[in-house]
Amino acid sequence: MKWVPSKSVPFVIPYYGRWILPTVGQVWPKPQQQTSSETFFVLRPTMFQFQIVGERCDIIDEAVRRYYQLIFYPGAAASAPLAYPPTLSVIQDNPQFRAFLDSVAIDLKQPCEYLPSADMIESYNIKIDTPDNPLKATISSDSVWGILRGLESLSQLVYSSTETGVAYQINATEIVDFPRFSYRGLMMDSARHYMPLKTIKKMTDLMAQNKMNVLHWHLTDDASFPYESTLFPNISRYGSFQPFSHIYTANDVREIIEYARMRGIRVIPEFDSPDHTQSWGRGQPKLLTECYDDNGVLLVPDEYGAIMPTREENYVFLQQFFGEIFNTFPDPFVHLGGDEVSYYCWQRHPEIKAFMAANGWGTDFTKLEQYYFDRLTTATQEITQNQMRYIVWQELLDLNITLPTGTIVEVWKGAKEELNFLDELARITKYGYQTILSSPWYLNYISYGLDWEKYYLAEPLDFDGSDEQKKLVIGGEVVMWSEYVDSVSVIPRTWPRASTVAERLWSDRSVNDTTLAALRLEEHRCRLLKRGFAVDPSNGVNFCEQEWDM
Amino acid sequence: MKWVPSKSVPFVIPYYGRWILPTVGQVWPKPQQQTSSETFFVLRPTMFQFQIVGERCDIIDEAVRRYYQLIFYPGAAASAPLAYPPTLSVIQDNPQFRAFLDSVAIDLKQPCEYLPSADMIESYNIKIDTPDNPLKATISSDSVWGILRGLESLSQLVYSSTETGVAYQINATEIVDFPRFSYRGLMMDSARHYMPLKTIKKMTDLMAQNKMNVLHWHLTDDASFPYESTLFPNISRYGSFQPFSHIYTANDVREIIEYARMRGIRVIPEFDSPDHTQSWGRGQPKLLTECYDDNGVLLVPDEYGAIMPTREENYVFLQQFFGEIFNTFPDPFVHLGGDEVSYYCWQRHPEIKAFMAANGWGTDFTKLEQYYFDRLTTATQEITQNQMRYIVWQELLDLNITLPTGTIVEVWKGAKEELNFLDELARITKYGYQTILSSPWYLNYISYGLDWEKYYLAEPLDFDGSDEQKKLVIGGEVVMWSEYVDSVSVIPRTWPRASTVAERLWSDRSVNDTTLAALRLEEHRCRLLKRGFAVDPSNGVNFCEQEWDM
């Protein structure tokens, strides 16, 4: 389908009016293959239905309800649609009109999987009035996750036409689509500011509407520990901002996981250790390293370092705690953190000094950190019957720490320096671990003006490396650290910037023309707004048919 | 009153928990004089009333309803209050408890004025259990505007006590308060992005809750002309983004003016000319200067420059148009703009070249701009019987253009360069016009991290100049240009950053300790959030008792 410029502004002159004309009925992220025709169908809300012709399960049943709503009544911000379908006689006069489209077949060819996973298939086909499917529309896939992605694309193909006045119109279209990378994540930080469940759910909806598939939940940090552990409730009792209002109960966590599962999104929790753990200490005495100054004087009260790595009972705690995490979060992957470990308090603690000497490690504290991670991974493998798998921040490799096979390494350095992340990727992939990239996508670092192009153009495979190295890069993720953002602005600060990363990770590598992307992003932004999500404008001076009016 | 740190976090250790402890029951902006005692009163929602003991009018009647609501049921984000008043016996045991406070007297000593104005009095006194007003509370002022400011302060003095468990508590307090500067403005730009009425009203509420008193409404620009003129409806018909949904009717404008009047806020419209007027041209043919290239070839279609200054009928239009504006907006001040005038098309237009030659002006186009403003001000004085008064951007003085006595000049340069604005102020005040400052307060230029201190510390009177020059500085304003912000984020991007400017312009010059301000700003931000406004966090890692959960 050609780009059809909006008719609401007749034409554009320099300096006058909007800067960018949005596309109409284009899919974001751009499908791998798409052919469209100018001929169109009209959808009628009172007649339309999804027909489930293949396998079915709760995920499908929920999804067709959700997408019926998204197509016809897209959200709180939406008021009346442009127009109801015109009478048949009027629309029949239009030479491009094919028919009313009163159903879309959902053809899942294999039984549903229960949980999205690292290996999930997300490919799907859409056929609307193709030669082998005349006057009909079908979404087909071998996987329930593919069906979800196809429903999202279908919902984006439906548009209001200012030309015909039809509120729900769709062009004859064929799509063959699949993701380029299997890991397309978004990291939320609910430790520096508490994020209410409603906010996390909205972020999950937005991820699904951008075909992202991993919610990396940075649950704890120095500032707070909002996760209410069943085995160790004292940690959130003393380590959350407020132990009743600012926590996530086991039930809250289940609610998020189920919400994400319905949308084909994995939830991977991060319990960052051994550092970034100040909030753990108050409710779990003796966990952290007491801190001494250079003269051997104990710093009191409440000066602590990272988790005390030489105290045997700490590994008992960690085993039980991560055992609980493994039972609470169904995905086998847990992010263990491992970033920015300060050795200051380790270096000055008499027990640790004795332990280092006994092992002949001198002053090489990376050996102690290696010891900590060896013990942690051994303990967690034991309690999970070798089922738990790990993601870690890149520091562990920077320090030459060896990690269990199957661990994924997250490259985050170079976040502030231009393109440095390619060198980091080249270096880290040499270790042979699977790798995900977040360096260029630190969306918390805001700046003035049109800023999405740098996120869009960051290409994960642009580094100097062998084919084997490149195959190790399984995707990437947007990160939104929350030191300076809370539930008020986390959505507009993340979106639609994160959409541009979603396209980088889903679409073909050749989809990298920012001028063309801008027109589609403009439509996509207004679409998300219309669906009731407070997403920021992305292309400067412009407007949406329906503005945010809350 | 001493700062009482919040009790919800028992104490703070390095790196752990929130970075800043909010104050409790502190007023923002800080009053000129305040003494408070540790003894307190308890307010009961079912018993409490305002008693109007002096003059009254609709503004007072509306205000006491509004502030009852703000004190006891502060907004959508609020859930249950901390606790209802404890039984009398329990609270009587507290040695600091004085009594239940079941009424506050509103003592307006002079009849209400109808409209807020440049000369309005905003001073007020609050006496709660002072020696001359024992066991009683009174807000008094000579002016209805002072009563409004006093009600705002009173509402901020009421706090929930984690110590006593009382939901609505207020300390014995005496306040003598008045603003340092008479002009404390906020500029909204509804031309680059359309701002729905709801958004403008929320901004107005937030201004009142920060004791700001001028809404400078930048209504039109190159991008769009959303003001629907009664005399010239074609301008918005062809010059707005969308002529039905993206305009302000005369009724919309009245609604905003009335909303602002009730809150003691003036509305000053800006119709920027002769440049920044591309959107005016389509519905008002011949208004703009046709543009020729260097070879005298007319650039077609739709290349225009600023308003054509040598075409007589344009002054007829401008007179009628600004006559309508003067009748629509009750404040005598209108912002005429005058910034960034490009001479490119003027220089190349044959009629203008002939006009310049006939007047012997050579190539000095500032003379033509002077001519334009002479004609514009003469025309508008004529139609308004010399009642209209002007604000202009500083360029006109930079070009040595003479303006009518009583014109106010807005200094905006140095917005991006550090402290340069002081040189601009020193230079501009030498011309003898009253001056307002906005250079350091371009809040649209966002940046990462803790950013409010630079706004807070920008001191308008810190320039080298005589006492006479300093007296000319009557205030300043926050500006929020909307190229990259629309109704989704304009509130969190503006607030509470604008609050820091509000304090700079209201409170004593000596109130400039950012460490102390941070504690009060933290409370103020959570208060605004609790009242239902989506204002951003300002001090990094923290939380509010009631988070934004929409």
From TrEMBL, chains A, B:
Cystines in this chain: C57-C112, C291-C345, C526-C544
Catalytic residues (positions): E340 (proton donor)
GO cellular component: lysosome; membrane
Alphabetically ordered keywords of this record: Disulfide bond, Glycoprotein, Glycosidase, Hydrolase, Signal
Listed Pfam families: Glyco_hydro_20, Glycohydro_20b2
Catalytic activity, reaction form: Hydrolysis of terminal non-reducing N-acetyl-D-hexosamine residues in N-acetyl-beta-D-hexosaminides
Residue ranges of every copy of the Beta-hexosaminidase eukaryotic type N-terminal domain listed in the record: 27-157
Molecular function, one GO term: beta-N-acetylhexosaminidase activity
Keyword DNA repair: no
Domain Glycoside hydrolase family 20 catalytic, chain residue ranges per copy: 181-508
Enzyme Commission number, as recorded: 3.2.1.52
GO biological process: carbohydrate metabolic process; glycosaminoglycan metabolic process; N-glycan processing
Domain of life: Eukaryota
Annotated family: Belongs to the glycosyl hydrolase 20 family.
Protein name per UniProt: Beta-hexosaminidase
Organism whose genome encodes this protein: Daphnia pulex (Water flea)
